[in-house]
Design a protein that fits this description.
Layout lengths: L4 E3 L14 H14 L2 E3 L16 H4 L12 H23 L13 H15 L2 H30 L4 E2 L1 H13 L4 H15 L3 E2 L47 H11 L9 H7 L13 H11 L1 H14 L5 H24 L4 H4 L1 H18 L4 H15 L5 H24 L2 H24 L5
Parallel strand pairs: 1-2, 3-4
Helix pairs in contact: 3-4, 5-6, 5-7, 6-9, 10-14, 11-16, 12-14, 14-16, 16-17
């Protein structure tokens, strides 16, 4: 059998051939769109000539609009030429006395030619295709809304919206191509128009002893790292900053942590489980989440690295480190300014990002007070008069660094309340204590 999609003829063009229903035509169009092998016999009546009457420009070219991503300019041109050649062949027949309209449902050849040219002009390049797709989607949405409105009005006729009625509305709306938000907006609109509608789907609780799995809400999702409850739409954990895994990986953790009390699932959840797909449900990474994630995963490590350099090698040039810290202050200031511009209501909308911001404002002030090399000489003099300790500059740098690391970790843990950071802080504290003990053993005069 040939791989080509042969389009057979029809004897009577006034109607579709037997068995050639709309669903069959759609299947044929999808098949040709994916394989790119349209071929029309010029010696017979094309059984799918009816597509030239379609309001869908893609369908006029025997292409599936839902697979528009597969369609290129070359494919458009090929389909146009194939159909145009078919019509040109019929022009020759008409000049020989064979009536085109008689075998094509009474439609004149010129009308179908105009339809073909109109479709080609609107789809022949990418920009025009995208423009048409946008307008087509808007029109399709309007028609979907128009089809769903009577169903909603019927459900609200008695001014009571039951659980089953709302579930049915969601299912029908999803079939029409609407998303949950669109459906909710339509329901709310009709509620306002009708007035005083009792919505029984709000806060419908089910006893925990209810064994019906359909009445159990999916348990809350928890971070696999720090076990903190997370927002289903979050791309990163707001507590420890790790990237959130897909729901399929989080649900076992949720089952383990969730309590035994359940709430009845919303009609939207039921509709989705029944096969409804939500459109436009991409990950939402707003500035607050990104800002918080950046500070947790990157900036603290940079600062701690600088302090560890002081601890491990007190002989390092402070002027060189001072230059690095100055650049660090600039980055810190820039990010704090960025956090302010992410939204005036940062504290209310993103409390985690606000806590991180407040923490870095404090540490920025502390870093600004970090003494320079000449200041250590004054500090050395004060230590001599106040404590009677004749410490060298290198020793003062070392002690200051140890105290700074501990202070840094304490403030960070206080403002973030992050288990992961707390563990890092405790590890750093123990390491710092060991280094201090080693230093004390090396120099009995130290402290």
């Amino acid at each position: 059998m040939s791989d080509e999609f042969e389009l057979t003829s029809e004897e009577d063009g006034s109607s579709f051939p037997r068995g050639n229903k709309t669903s069959d035509i759609k299947t044929a169009i999808i098949d040709v769109t994916k394989k790119g092998n349209l071929r029309i016999s010029k010696d017979e009546v094309w059984q799918y000539w009816h597509v030239l009457k379609s309001a869908d420009f893609f369908e006029r070219l025997f292409l599936d609009i839902d697979n528009s991503a597969l369609i290129t300019n070359e494919v458009i041109s090929y389909h146009y030429e194939e159909i145009r050649s078919y019509l040109e062949k019929w022009k020759e027949r008409e000049s020989a006395g064979i009536n085109f309209a008689q075998s094509h449902g009474g439609y004149p050849l010129r009308e179908l030619e105009r339809n073909l040219e109109e479709a080609y002009l609107n789809l022949k390049n990418r920009a025009s295709r995208e423009e048409y797709l946008n307008s087509y989607s808007e029109e399709k949405k309007k028609q979907a809304v128009k089809s769903l409105e009577p169903i909603i009005k019927m459900a609200l006729a008695d001014k009571i919206l039951t659980y089953d009625e709302k579930t049915l509305i969601y299912q029908e709306g999803l079939k029409f191509g609407l998303n949950i938000r669109d459906i909710d907006n339509l329901i709310d609109l009709q509620k306002r128009i009708i007035g005083e509608v009792t919505d029984e789907t709000n806060n419908v609780a089910v006893n925990a002893a209810d064994k019906d799995p359909e009445n159990k809400k999916d348990p809350d999702l928890f971070c696999p790292n720090c076990k903190v409850k997370i927002d289903p739409d979050a791309a990163f954990c707001g507590e420890c900053g790790i990237k959130i895994a897909p729901d399929s990986e989080l649900k076992p953790i949720a089952e383990e942590i969730a309590s035994n009390s359940y709430e009845r699932p919303s009609p939207a959840d039921v509709s989705e489980r029944n096969g409804g797909a939500l459109s436009g449900s991409a990950d939402k990474e707003d500035p607050g989440h990104i800002f918080s994630f950046y500070f947790r995963r990157f900036f603290p490590s940079v600062v701690l690295l600088h302090y560890l350099i002081f601890i491990l090698d007190t002989g390092i040039s402070f002027s060189a480190m001072g230059n690095v810290l100055q650049r660090l202050f600039f980055v810190d200031s820039f990010l704090i300014a960025f956090s302010i511009f992410t939204g005036r209501k940062l504290k209310d909308q993103h409390p985690e990002a606000y806590r991180i911001t407040k923490f870095f404002l404090i540490t920025l002030i502390l870093f600004s007070l970090f003494p320079g090399n000449y200041n250590f000489k004054y500090l050395q003099r004060y230590m001599h008069y106040i404590f009677g300790w004749d410490a060298g500059v290198a020793e003062l740098k070392f002690v200051w660094s140890i105290l700074s690391v501990l202070l840094y970790g304490f403030i960070y843990r206080k403002f973030t309340k992050s288990p992961a950071i707390a563990n890092l802080y405790n590890t750093g504290k123990d390491s710092a204590a060991n280094i201090v003990n080693d230093k004390l053993k090396e120099d009995n005069n130290f402290l």
